[in-house]
Every structure is written in structure tokens, then in C-alpha cells.
Amino acid sequence: MNKSARLFSVATLAVALAGCTVGPKYNRPAVTAPPTFRGDPATTPDHASLADAKWFEVFKDPQLQDLVRTALTNNHDLREAVVRVEAARASLGITRADRLPTISAGGDITTTRFAANGSFPLAGDIEQTRTYGTVGLNLLSFELDIWGRLRRATEAARADLLATEENRKAVVTVLVSDVATAYFNLLELDSALETAKRTLESRQDSLKLIRNRERTGLASTLEVRQGEQLVQVAQQAIPAIEQRIAQTENQLRLLLGDNPGPIARARPLTGQDQFPAIPPGLPSSLLERRPDIRVAEQNLIATNARIGVARASFFPQISLTGLFGFQSSQLDSLFTKANRTWQFTPQLAQPIFTGGRLKSNLELAKAEQRLAVVQYDRSIRTAFREVSDNLVQYEKVRDIRGRQESLVATLQDRSRLSYVRYRGGVDTLLNALDADRDLFDAELRLAQLRRDELVTVVQLYRALGGGWQN
User: Fold this and answer.
1) How many whole angstroms separate alpha carbon 109 and alpha carbon 135?
2) Distance between CA atoms of 276 and 288, rounded to whole angstroms?
3) Which position has the higher pLDDT, 303 or 9?
4) Please, what is the Cα angle at 32 between 27 and 37, to 5 degrees?
5) Domain 20-105+146-319+359-463, CATH number (from 3.40.250.10, 3.40.50.2020, 1.20.1250.20, 1.20.1600.10)
6) Cα 173 to Cα 55: distance, rounded to the nearest angstrom
7) More exposed terminus of the chain, fewer Cβ within 10 Å: N or C?
């Protein structure tokens, strides 16, 4: 068999075996999804979902939109996630390059001068100076991927890249949620501060009334002290709220990747858009929408591919090295056919005794794959629970907020009537002070419930996998 036939036979064998890939083929684990989310008020499932909307379609406050855009540009966690994607892409490129031959070109020129009267004198017709030239292409240890080891390694690296990309989307989802939550917390504190200042002004007016009545003998010193107590409580509440406002602003500035400082507001808490209907969509769509579930699946794909890498280590590893070029002692005839040189070296390595290392590596890969299956299933069940929890919370908070508004209206009327009766001398100051305290607490609670209603929508939007769509 001549040289061409031998090379053709090797190439044919390599092509024939190239389709042999050991290791299990990936199949998505079967997941039983409920037909609807628990807590979904809709009587029939709707394919539309709140998560299908882009974040700027959900949050209409222009200042909040500016804050989210700034965070998506400057947030440190998101910038770190982007760099991780770039690193994973480079790692995939390195792994993919192992499947391709590495060819290098080289050449050298060597000039040697021999002494005419040395230990071995030269004959008269032999030149003292000689020049040798070599030029060629080198094939550096190219592995024939007969068993699919490199293909499985590339599959795993590609899944790692997709997992880091999905993780970047998960970071975006969390970031949008955190910015919106911090902003609504800030608006709730603004509302609480406004309530505290208004209450302080009202209590100071009441204290003036009590002191005037004391001077005329219609009120006692005890009543004055009770009025002073309410004023001092309101005065104390204001700096505490201002402290929380500053801390929340600093927290929000950190999310923006900026130094501590104030945050501008556009609409007050009561001016935020309400959400009369919150369609969650089909539970099965979470598998394709939520980034954390997709991260878990890509991790599962990667561990499944690494089983193939570990299994392929049991089989022979065939690699090729070669050289083709020209070599001559005379440069003017370097590239002639007579000076052509080549070398072809196939190599085979078969593990015989490894002390159980290969078997343990395979068992480790299988265990990691089983662990990834558990983590994938858990991420799905956790997603179903989070969506259901937030649906229930949203409906109940809306109901409680409506009842709290009625309670505040009742307490406002009660406080007004109590002071009217006190001024008319037909009721005690204690009833008026109790009504004032109850009203202050109820108004603070109402601000919290309005915030909770908005934050619940944010949490539901995040649980459904929304927010990463730009």
C-alpha cells in the first residue's frame, strides 16, 4: 500500500468513527406543572402574562424609569455578570479550539565555517563555508475525537456559557426589582414624613387650645402634659423617618453604582399607577421565561455532557503529529522536489491501570448530574411557590388596603368630632387624644399598605421571570 492509500485509509477510519459519541444524550426531565397558579383570580388560564411586558411598561413613573436605566448601566453586580459572560465565551473558544489541528510554520538558516587546517583538514574541492536551510509546516499533536470526548467537552462549555448568560438575565431581573422596591420604600417614607409633619402641626394647635383652656380654668395641668406628650411623640417620629429616608436613598444610590446622595422623586405614593388585573399566565411558561430555571437547566446539560467526557477517558486516545517541508544545504535548491521532506506519526494511548481514577471520575460526573437534576426540579417548584405566594399576597394586600382606607376615613371623622366635643365641653380630652393617636398610627399603616401593594406587584413580576427584557 502506497503512502496516499495509507493516508486515505486513516482519514476514512477517522470520518467513520467521528459520529461515535459516548455518554448519555440530554433529555429535559419531565416536569408536572399545575394547570393554573394557586391564587390566580382568573377562572380560566390566560396565555398572557405580566412578565411578558418590558419593565418600563410595568413601572410608569418617569423617575423610576431613569433610575432603572442608570442601574442597568452602572450597577456593580450586573457589570460583574457581564464580565463572567465574556470569560465563559472565551473558555468556550479555548475548548472548541482543542477539536481543531494546530499547525505552525517554521524555518531556519544555519551557516557553518570549517577550519582549513583543523583536526580534519578539508580537501581542496570542499568549501569551508556551508549554509543549511529548513522550512516547513508542523502538525502539533492533533487528537482524533473518535469517542466524542472533545465534542462533549465543547457541549459542556457551551452550556456553561449559556448558564452565565442566563445568570446575567437573572441579575437584571433582581436589579430591576430591587431598584423599584427601594424607590417605593422611599415614597412610603415620604408619605410617612408628610403625615408626621401634618400630625405635629395639628397637635401643636391642640396644645395651644389646651393651654388657653388651662389659663381660663377649663383644663388641668394633666391635660397640658398629655398634649405635650403627643407633640413630643410626633417631634420624635420626624427625625427617625428622615434617618430612614437618607439610608434608603444611600441604598438606592449603591444599586445605581454611585456614591451616597439624595434621590429625586417624580410621583408621590398615591400617584403611582395601580394594577387592576395581574395576569400570571400559564405555569408551564416559567420553564422558558425565568432565568434562574434556565440557569439550572444549562448546568444540568453541562453535567450531562461531562459524563461523556469521563466515559471517553476509558477508550484509546489517538493523536497525529506531522511535518512537511524542505531541507537543503543549498538555499538556491531548497524548494526543489528532491529536497522535500515529510513525517507522519500517529500515536495511540490506552489507559491500563489508573488506580480507579477513571472509574471514580465517571461516578463523580454521574453524581454531579443527579445533583443538577435535583437542583433543576427544586428551582421549578420554588418558582411555582413564589408566584402563588405573591398572587395570594397581592389579592389580600389590596383587600386590606381598601379596608384601611375606610378605617382612616372613620378615624379622621372621629378625631374631628372628638375635638369639637372637647371644645364644647361635652367630652374629655382623653377621648380626643386617643382618637388622635389612633389616626396617626392608621395613616402610617395605610402608607405601608400602599407601598406593600406596589412592592407585591414588583415581587410578582420578578417571580414570573420579568424584567430582563429590554
Assistant:
1) 9
2) 26
3) 303
4) 135
5) 1.20.1600.10
6) 9
7) N
Task: Enumerate the H helices of 110-266 as residue ranges.
Answer: 149-215, 221-255
Report the range of poorest mean pLDDT among 101-105, 128-132, 138-142, 176-180: 128-132
CA–CA dist 40, 430 (Å, integer) = 46
| Alpha carbons 244 and 196: distance in angstroms, whole number | 14
Residue 321 phi/psi, 5° resolution?
-130, 150
- Mean pLDDT score of the chain, rounded to an integer? 85
Q: What is the pLDDT of residues 287-327, one digit of tens each?
A: 888 999 999 999 999 999 999 999 988 888 888 887 776 67
Residues with Cβ within 8 Å of 211's Cβ and at least 6 positions away in sequence, in order, are 219, 224, 227
φ, ψ at 246 (rounded to 5°) = -60, -45
Give the mean model confidence (pLDDT) for residues 35-51: 74
Rounded to the nearest 10°, the torsion over CA 66, 68, 73, 75 is 130
For the four alpha carbons of 389, 393, 396 and 399, in that order, the dihedral sign comes to negative
Domain ranges of the chain: 20-105+146-319+359-463
Predicted local confidence at residue 279, as pLDDT: 84
The reported pLDDT for the residue numbered 195 is 92
pLDDT digits (tens, 9 = 90+) for 53-99: 888 888 989 999 999 999 999 999 999 999 999 999 999 898 888 88
The model's pTM is: 0.84
Q: Whole-angstrom Cα distance, residue 151 to residue 312? A: 10
CA distance 73 to 71: 5
End-to-end CA distance of the chain: 64
Identify the CA nearest to 281 among candidates 386, 387, 381, 180. 387
Reported residue count of the chain is 470
Cell, residue 106: 517554521
pLDDT at 5: 43
